[in-house]
């Protein structure tokens, strides 16, 4: 029988993000403080979100509305990154993106954190944009999960395929 293992991934549910974006868009169209500011939020590609408004303050407030909707849908704030407002003609634009996958340097940092704890028989292998952690005992793997939950790597981590 194979050793117990689990995967460390950084993924968000695209449908939940889409629902949050639609809710934010609806709220922006109905709220009194956004009336007459032509504030909008929309997809700009597969993982990118664009927020536009006539004033910088309303654009930033629209980002806050979107973040609020993401939080209500249990999506980590570490999975959304918004740039500073830029002016384009008379419109302020804020580009945001949904972060998915574990980058190579973050994967190495996570792997090093696991190695530094010196768990017996536990290995971490980088597999593309995720990490596979295997070990001899399930208790060791649960200790690794607790360790990773306790540290902040700057990205949203999920633990899948626990066997």
Question: Structural class of the secondary elements?
Answer: alpha+beta
Number of helices: 4
Instruction: Give the number of DSSP strands.
Output: 9
Uncertain regions spanning at least 5 consecutive residues: none
- Average pLDDT confidence is 91
Account of the protein in words:
By secondary structure, the protein is of the alpha+beta class. The protein is 37% helix and 26% strand. The chain contains four helices and nine strands; from the N terminus they run E-H-E-E-H-E-E-E-H-E-E-H-E. Strands 2, 3, 4, 5 and 6 form a five-stranded antiparallel sheet that branches. Strands 7-8-1-9 form a four-stranded antiparallel sheet, covered by helices on one side. Strand 2 (40-43) and strand 3 form a beta hairpin. The protein is elongated.
Topology:
Elements (H helix, E strand, L loop, with lengths): L4 E5 L4 H17 L9 E4 L4 E6 L2 H17 L7 E3 L3 E3 L2 E8 L5 H13 L6 E5 L2 E5 L3 H13 L7 E3 L3
Antiparallel strand pairs: 1-8, 1-9, 2-3, 3-6, 4-6, 5-6, 7-8
Helix pairs in contact: 1-2
Task: From the structure above, extract its key features.
163 residues, 4 helices, alpha+beta, five-stranded antiparallel β-sheet, 37% helix
């Amino acid at each position: 029988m194979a050793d117990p293992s689990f995967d460390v991934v950084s993924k968000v549910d695209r449908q939940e993000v889409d629902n949050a974006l639609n809710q934010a868009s609806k709220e922006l169209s109905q709220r009194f403080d956004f009336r007459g500011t032509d504030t909008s939020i929309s997809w700009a590609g597969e993982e990118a979100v664009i927020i536009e408004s006539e004033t910088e303050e309303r654009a930033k407030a629209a980002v806050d509305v979107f973040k609020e909707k993401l939080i209500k849908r249990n999506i980590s704030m570490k999975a959304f990154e918004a740039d500073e407002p830029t002016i384009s003609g008379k419109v302020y634009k804020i580009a945001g993106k949904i972060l998915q996958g574990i980058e190579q340097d973050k994967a190495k940092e996570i792997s090093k954190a696991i190695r530094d704890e010196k768990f017996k028989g536990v290995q971490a292998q980088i597999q593309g944009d995720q990490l596979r952690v295997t070990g001899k005992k399930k208790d060791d793997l649960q200790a690794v999960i607790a360790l990773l939950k306790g540290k902040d790597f700057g990205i949203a981590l999920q633990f899948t395929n626990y066997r």
